Amino acid sequence: MSFGLIPVTRAQYRYNDRYVRQVLQRLETRTDRFSNLLPDALDRSRLDGTDRENDVNNMVTACESATDRLKDRFSLAVWPSAGTNLEHPVLKEFFE
Predict the structure, then answer these.
(1) Rounded to 10 degrees, what is the CA torsion of 28, 32, 33, 37?
(2) How confident is the model at residue 71 (pLDDT cuts 50, 70, 90)?
(3) At what angle do helices 17-43 and 51-78 cross, to 10 degrees?
(4) How far is CA 91 from CA 33, 52, 72, 74, in A?
(5) Of 9, 40, 88, 89, whose CB neighbour count within 10 A is largest?
(6) Average pLDDT estimate for 70-79
(7) What value does the mean pLDDT take over residues 22-40?
(8) Helices (H), strands (E): how many in the chain?
(9) What are the Cα distances from residue 32, in Å, to 2, 15, 27, 38?
């Protein structure tokens, strides 16, 4: 039985490199702004000096690292350097 659905291809969800770079830059800028404002806000909160404050700070640090890795992976996928292993699973996905 057919429901008249049109098959969705991966190409429909692709954006150009410039757009993705802009999104990644905004993500990085806003992540940095958030991480710069958070310590003062936590110091004025009930969480100040608690293990929960440390947990929140660790999560923000992890978020910043993940943002940096995402930006690096995109840059590497778009502009691979000579000698880059294009067989790496992350890179293969970008070049398929």
Answers:
(1) 150
(2) confident
(3) 170
(4) 30, 37, 12, 9
(5) 88
(6) 77
(7) 92
(8) 3, 0
(9) 49, 24, 8, 10
**Residue 89 reports pLDDT greater than 70:** no
Asked whether the beta carbons of 14 and 77 are under 8 A apart, the reply is no
Phi first, then psi, for residue 7 (nearest 5°) are -60, 140
The tokens describing 71, both together, are 């930006």
Alpha carbons 69 and 7: distance in angstroms, whole number? 32
Q: What is this structure's pTM?
A: 0.61
**CA 21, CA 90: separation in Å to the nearest integer?**
17
